[in-house]
């Protein structure tokens, strides 16, 4: 019985790629240095999978930024502003598209389906001159082959690529991206022909959009595309891979009828209904790649349940046509549990990271072939039994409090208009008030102090002193810049979710459980293993300290329950919404303690609310109901004069704008600049928004410093669709990843732009 891995984490066991990328961007190392680190990571991955017995090992899943940007490079689809004139695309053009440069902004970045991973959105139009401009897929296949590993090259499928793209600025809204399919397929034919010539016998085409609700003409595009590729694919075994959800019946029918396709991959963890489609009818003689090992969570596989599923499928597709696989790429999980030397032994026994999931896939394949590792299966059963019976998982008081939430919608008693009046009397803010989103740059020295404090090399007294000095520096800088509503800069926090999880019960933490979010940005999701509660106040000390340093309003900074949930590895033994309600109650306690501590503006970030929206429309209403309700629970008990902010970023929000309004926050700050101000279109189309709103005026994920004129132009565009008395001026997101040499001039220009427009509005009266 054969085994397959959809994809693998690319940062390296100790985030080697992250540090190599950042050194390269800072011009401390060369392109050759970066490529050597990259090659070492790839060879380690291939060797590991090969030694584990994996038959179908992927290549070309490694990327210096993301796999969609790699495809854009492969197709030569570089927007004109980057000055690309043809030939093989180098790292300078590649990273300019991802990060921008001194003269031009980056391309839009958005979430990869419903994950916390991001991709760079292709900008396409009728004038794009597609050409085979990056030979990375072929080069990596040859690289693996030279190491003695025959791999399955992986490409983002042509139809998914186009449907994940957007029309470039200036292109007619009515432009059909699928009309570019013939031009795109011409390049795919070149790539596939080269892969065949290099010796590839299998190829994997990822077409994840097949799990979405697609109209008939989009499904027809798959039929047409693969018919066009059929002769080129001849002689290859072709796997079309889907993941993240059930595949709809019509899409299943389309997929299993595609010309030239040998095998189909399905997520059978999040797509359990797909099993029924397979059992009801599967094409004879084709391979089924059964994704029974979860690629998006860190819990050990239930071997007995998976084996039962596989045995049932074996009866449908045949023993020699069933391949055991992961549900999706392991990119979305941590690298290797072996690096967790300090994790509680009992909790560790319940978990499996990417390296362990490779072992799980191969153990299931061997068991299905009659070579069951009895010791491994017994250990698996014991770990699952331990988790089910462990008293540390259940807290009766928490469960009762969450159950008592039923029957109320937890809205604040007064409407937002009256609350804003009460808040203005207290805060006395100018029109177009300026603020930032929370974090300020995290210097090497700051990280060192925090790291040494955790390692008990620095006393608590010295740690608090260092943090106080950093907060004072940030407060003084904001006052110098004349920002209206301040933040303390979050120097005590490495990560907005990890920080809270460390102080909540029911959470566990890893030392090296890093997961890539985008580019070199890695996050270390906490693990929610049990019922959640807040033993004591988490942020009041720091926020009150910061407020004592200034007479201006200081925001208390919290992460919302839905974002904590969506950015954690969540327990899979109860519904996600039940866990979210527990987190909401814990955050509610913190909000009320901040208010008692004299904090009059409290931001509860829900950056990941849109990210968690299910991929199928039929599931949207239920998710939005409990997600929005969870947010309202956190702040339903505060006074009218306490201003509640929330923040969202890097997702498409227009389709959930009514749910955002239903959150009933007093002010929302929201990413806007990098997505070509698409957010504003919803207001142009007549949606009325009565609360405060701050669409971001500049992109913080790029080192580029926008001029005050550019920012003023953005604000004027906002004023064309939003009332001046509700508009705020702020960056897109937190400033943690930037340097002070970038932050100071950018914020100065932002404040100058706000003041300029205030004076223009005053003189126009």
TrEMBL record:
GO molecular function, one term: methionine synthase activity
Domain annotation Cobalamin-independent methionine synthase MetE C-terminal/archaeal: ranges: 432-755
Binding residues for L-methionine: 437-439, 490, 605
Catalytic activity: 5-methyltetrahydropteroyltri-L-glutamate + L-homocysteine = tetrahydropteroyltri-L-glutamate + L-methionine
Catalytic residues in the record: 701 (proton donor)
EC number(s) on file: 2.1.1.14
UniProt remark on cofactor binding: Binds 2 Zn(2+) ions per subunit.
Positions that bind Zn(2+) 2: 658, 662
Domain Cobalamin-independent methionine synthase MetE N-terminal: 3-316
Keyword Methyltransferase included in the entry's annotation: yes
Gene3D superfamilies per UniProt: 3.20.20.210
Positions with a binding annotation for Zn(2+) 1: 647, 649, 671, 733
GO biological process: methylation
Keywords assigned: Amino-acid biosynthesis, Metal-binding, Methionine biosynthesis, Methyltransferase, Transferase, Zinc
Cofactor: Zn(2+)
UniProt pathway annotation: Amino-acid biosynthesis; L-methionine biosynthesis via de novo pathway; L-methionine from L-homocysteine (MetE route): step 1/1
Residues that hold 5-methyltetrahydropteroyltri-L-glutamate according to the record: 18, 116, 521-522, 567
InterPro entries xref list: Cbl-indep_Met_Synth_N, Cobalamin-indep_Met_synthase, Met_Synth_C/arc, UROD/MetE-like_sf
Similarity comment: Belongs to the vitamin-B12 independent methionine synthase family.
Function: Catalyzes the transfer of a methyl group from 5-methyltetrahydrofolate to homocysteine resulting in methionine formation.
Name listed for the protein in its UniProt record: 5-methyltetrahydropteroyltriglutamate--homocysteine S-methyltransferase
Classification lineage: Eukaryota, Viridiplantae, Streptophyta, Embryophyta, Tracheophyta
Gene (UniProt): LOC130501733
């Amino acid at each position: 019985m054969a085994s397959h891995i959809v994809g693998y984490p690319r940062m390296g066991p100790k985030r080697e790629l992250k540090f190599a990328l950042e050194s390269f961007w800072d011009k401390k190392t060369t392109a050759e240095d970066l490529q050597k680190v990259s090659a070492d990571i790839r060879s380690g991955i291939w060797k590991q999978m090969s030694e584990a017995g994996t038959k179908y090992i992927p290549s070309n899943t490694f990327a210096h930024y993301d796999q969609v940007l790699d495809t854009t490079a492969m197709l030569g689809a570089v927007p004109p502003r980057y000055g690309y004139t043809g030939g093989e695309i180098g790292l300078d053009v590649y990273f300019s598209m991802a990060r921008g440069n001194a003269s031009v902004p980056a391309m839009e970045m958005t979430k990869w389906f419903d994950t916390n991973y991001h991709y760079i959105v292709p900008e396409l139009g009728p004038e794009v001159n597609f050409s085979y401009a990056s030979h990375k897929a072929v080069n990596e296949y040859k690289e693996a082959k030279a190491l003695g590993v025959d791999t399955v090259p992986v490409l983002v499928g042509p139809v998914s690529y186009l449907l994940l793209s957007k029309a470039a600025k200036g292109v007619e809204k009515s432009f059909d991206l699928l009309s570019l399919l013939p031009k795109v397929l011409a390049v795919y034919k070149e790539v596939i022909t080269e892969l065949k010539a290099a010796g590839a016998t299998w190829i994997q085409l990822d077409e994840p959009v097949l799990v979405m609700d697609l109209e008939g003409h989009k499904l027809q595009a798959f039929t047409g595309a693969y018919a066009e590729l059929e002769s080129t694919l001849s002689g290859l075994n072709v796997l079309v891979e889907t993941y993240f959800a059930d595949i709809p019946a019509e899409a299943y029918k389309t997929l299993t009828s595609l010309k030239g396709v040998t095998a189909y991959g399905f997520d059978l963890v999040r797509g359990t209904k797909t099993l029924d489609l397979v059992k009801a009818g599967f094409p004879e003689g084709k391979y089924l790649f059964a994704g029974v090992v979860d690629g998006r969570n860190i819990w050990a596989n239930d071997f007995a349940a998976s084996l039962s599923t596989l045995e049932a499928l074996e009866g449908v597709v045949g023993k020699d046509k069933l391949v055991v696989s992961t549900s999706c790429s392991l990119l979305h999980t941590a690298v290797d549990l072996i690096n967790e030397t300090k994790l509680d032994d009992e909790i560790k026994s319940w978990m499996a990271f990417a390296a362990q999931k490779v072992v799980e896939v191969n153990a299931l394949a061997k068991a299905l072939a009659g070579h069951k590792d009895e010791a491994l299966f017994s250990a698996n059963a014991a770990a699952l039994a331990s988790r089910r019976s462990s008293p540390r998982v259940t807290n009766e008081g928490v469960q009762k409090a969450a159950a008592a939430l039923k029957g109320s919608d937890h809205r604040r008693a007064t409407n937002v208009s009256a609350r804003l009046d009460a808040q203005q009397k207290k805060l006395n803010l100018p029109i177009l008030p300026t603020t930032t989103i929370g974090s300020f740059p995290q210097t090497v020295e700051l990280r060192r102090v925090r790291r040494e404090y955790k390692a008990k090399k620095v006393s608590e007294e010295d740690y608090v002193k260092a943090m106080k000095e950093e907060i004072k520096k940030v407060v003084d800088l904001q006052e110098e810049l004349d920002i209206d509503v301040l933040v303390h800069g979050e120097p005590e926090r490495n990560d907005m979710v990890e920080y809270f999880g460390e102080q909540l019960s029911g959470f566990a933490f890893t030392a090296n459980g890093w997961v890539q979010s985008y580019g070199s940005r890695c996050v270390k999701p906490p693990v929610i293993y049990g019922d959640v509660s807040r033993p004591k106040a988490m942020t009041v000390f720091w926020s009150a300290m910061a407020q004592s340093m200034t007479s201006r309003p200081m925001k208390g900074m919290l992460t919302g329950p839905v974002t904590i949930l969506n950015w954690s590895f969540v327990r899979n033994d109860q519904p996600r919404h039940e866990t979210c309600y527990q987190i909401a109650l814990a955050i509610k306690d913190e909000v009320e303690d901040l208010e008692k501590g004299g904090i009059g503006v409290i931001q509860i970030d829900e950056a990941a609310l849109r990210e968690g929206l299910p991929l199928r429309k039929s599931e949207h209403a239920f998710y939005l109901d409990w997600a929005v309700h969870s947010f309202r629970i956190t702040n339903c008990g505060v006074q009218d004069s306490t201003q509640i902010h929330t923040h969202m970023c890097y997702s498409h929000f227009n389709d959930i704008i009514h749910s955002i309004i239903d959150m009933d926050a007093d002010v929302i700050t929201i990413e806007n600049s990098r997505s070509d101000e698409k957010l504003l279109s919803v207001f142009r189309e007549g949606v009325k928004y009565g609360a405060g709103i701050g669409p971001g005026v500049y992109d913080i994920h790029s080192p580029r410093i926008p001029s005050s004129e550019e920012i003023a132009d953005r604000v004027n565009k906002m004023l064309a669709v939003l009332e001046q008395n509700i508009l705020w001026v702020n960056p897109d997101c937190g400033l943690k990843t930037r340097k002070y040499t970038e932050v100071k001039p950018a914020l100065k220009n932002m404040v100058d732009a706000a003041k300029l427009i205030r004076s223009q509005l005053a003189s126009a009266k």
